[in-house]
């Protein structure tokens, strides 16, 4: 349930309104937009009558029930776009960010070389996997804590913020130097993990699961936000369909749909979407056209020898060429790269 307040509502009355419903067992959440202030009530709101609340509180303009199961990530509750900030980097607000780096951190030379190159080409955030959930138990699983150490070295060397995937909640203590926590597709419905990152105040990039609907995707984001963490970036990375010629099928329609029903920024991972290097460029361009707030692109200094996902990774020259095209198309859409 949400209540929209009159412009210029008295602050003391707002505090009294919030206290009243806290005493009734609800969790009031305040969203201050550019034009209006909204107070959402989380809890068993079936016991409340919307009209009675409006009539007995003169600061309330009107109220309504949010019928969708996702409440906090719902644009009805938070009409203005959420801006996720990492230092001076902003997802949303007309900015367009490119996250790039290898699927896995393999050694110091590799991650430093890639970090320097992607920064020179215009990427604003460095990606690299330290913990790698793999379909086969015999595949490379990442360097774990040593991988995090190497990412920190690359961050110190280049100044790029870093993003890496957390696969279980016991790893959180090692993520102090990580700027964005990634929750991968396989863990999108790992609810204990979502609750844990909801308690921290680091930005979270949440990837859509291989078989999950948009509503299920948003409900996973709701878990994080219900824990108090509002800095969430949604990532569409392709879903599993009957198609076999690509690794996954990029649901390009997810971007405008997500931005219609939610206030959270949305990025696309074109590398995992198709799993084919030659398709990364056209899918990246399509992502810009439908309104994405950024891209996550896998880049490797020697894809042929990559320990993970070499077939979908761009080499450094290919990434540089793509960034030139991305810059032109982002500017055409009226956004700013970086």
UniProtKB/TrEMBL annotation:
The keyword Transferase is annotated on this UniProt entry: yes
Alphabetical GO biological process terms: aromatic amino acid family biosynthetic process
Keyword Transmembrane: no
Pfam family, one: DAHP_snth_FXD
UniProt GO molecular function: aldehyde-lyase activity; transferase activity
Keywords per UniProt: Transferase
Domain DAHP synthase ferredoxin-like intervals: 1-63
Top-level division of the source organism's lineage: Bacteria
Domain DAHP synthetase I/KDSA: 83-327
Protein name, per record: 3-deoxy-D-arabinoheptulosonate-7-phosphate synthase
